[in-house]
Design brief:
Layout (H helix, E strand, L loop, with lengths): L24 H4 L10 H50 L7 H47 L21 H11 L7
Helix pairs in contact: 2-3, 2-4, 3-4
């Protein structure tokens, strides 16, 4: 019964076509690549794709930092508005709960400001790391082909990328010019 079973199909071929017994070695090689494409062309294309991927990963990280910063600024702003309402009340008319809430708000705002400071420091660290990686890549590209030592994909690391524009936005949002702070 098993002999009547048809062979599995792969792709658009009805069946596997085996070369005749006297066929040369070049007839046995099957390649999906264009016959005019060289290994150097493929490696160059792979390098370009890898650089684009790195840029996209860096941009994604930059956007995540910016999103976190915006959320922190919104939360700080919300807490400050609540605190301003409590501060506007005369001190002798405040209940113990209102005084306690005022202290809690100050502590929460302080904690969020510290978190935001850490975020800005992290952004600066990533920007410096990115600059160093770009410098190393430029040096690597300037060395002759024979001197280049290729690393495996497992040894390569990609780090987030923070453009100066993103850093400027962070500093403008909650830095010296920020109305929230």
């Amino acid at each position: 019964m098993e002999r009547n079973r048809s062979p599995p199909r792969y792709g658009s071929l009805e069946s596997t076509r085996w070369p005749p017994p006297g066929a040369g070695p070049e007839d046995e090689i099957v390649s999906m690549a264009d016959s005019t494409t060289t290994i150097d062309d493929i490696e160059g294309e792979l390098f370009k794709i890898e650089r684009i991927r790195e840029i996209l990963v860096r941009r994604e990280s930059e956007l995540r930092y910016m999103m976190d910063d915006i959320q922190l600024c919104k939360e700080i702003s919300r807490l400050k508005k609540e605190l301003q309402k409590l501060i506007a009340l005369p001190e002798n008319e405040k209940s113990n709960e209102e005084k306690q809430r005022e202290e809690e708000l100050v502590q929460q705002i302080h904690k969020l400001v510290e978190t935001r400071d850490f975020l800005v420091d992290d952004v600066e660290f990533e920007r410096l790391r990115e600059r160093e990686e770009d410098k190393e890549m430029a040096e690597f590209l300037q060395t002759p082909v024979k001197e280049k030592k290729m690393t495996s994909r497992g040894q390569q690391t990609s780090t987030p990328y923070m453009t100066k524009t993103g850093l400027t936005l962070l500093k403008e949002c909650c830095g010296f010019t920020c109305s929230i702070m």
